[in-house]
Amino acid sequence: MRFYGIPSEDRVFQILECISYGEWIVEDLKENAREVLNADAVKERLREIVLQVKGWKEDLATLTQATVFIFVHEPDNPKAFKIYDTSSLGCSTQLTPPRWKVYLKELEGSV
C-alpha cells in the first residue's frame, strides 16, 4: 500500500469527512491497545489524534508546521492511516513504526 503524507491538519479534517462506512480498527502501538469502531466513532477518534498532533506542533518550537506525522492511503477514499509521533523524528536510516494504525477491518494484515 502506498501512503501519502498530509502536512496540514486542516487537510486531514477534510479527508476525515470522506469516511462514511465500515468497521475500522485503531491500533495504538505504543500502548499496545486495539479498538474496533464504526465510521462515526473512528472519525471522532482520528480527530482526537489530529488535535494531539497539532498540539505537538504548537508546543515544540523545533517542529515546523509542515512536519508530516499523518499519512493516508487514497486521500479521496481513505481506507487506512498511519500516524507517527515525535519519537520518529531525528536522524535514522529507517522510519520507526507508526504510533497509530487506523484502517478498515477488511485490510487487516496488509497495513
Helix content: 25-40%
Structural class by SSE content: alpha+beta
Strand adjacency order, main sheet: 1-4-5-6-2-3
Strand content: 25-35%
> What is the terminal-to-terminal distance?
7 Å
Q: What's the helix count?
A: 2
DSSP strand count: 6
Largest sheet: 6 strands, antiparallel
Shape: globular
Mean of all residue-level pLDDT scores: 92
Unreliable residue stretches: none
Whole-number radius of gyration? Answer: 13 Å
SSE sequence, one letter per element: EHEEHEEE
Give a short synopsis of this structure.
The chain is an alpha+beta fold and 111 residues long. The chain has helices at residues 9-16, 39-59, and strands at 4-6, 23-28, 33-38, 70-73, 80-83, 100-104. Helix 1 (9-16) packs antiparallel against helix 2.
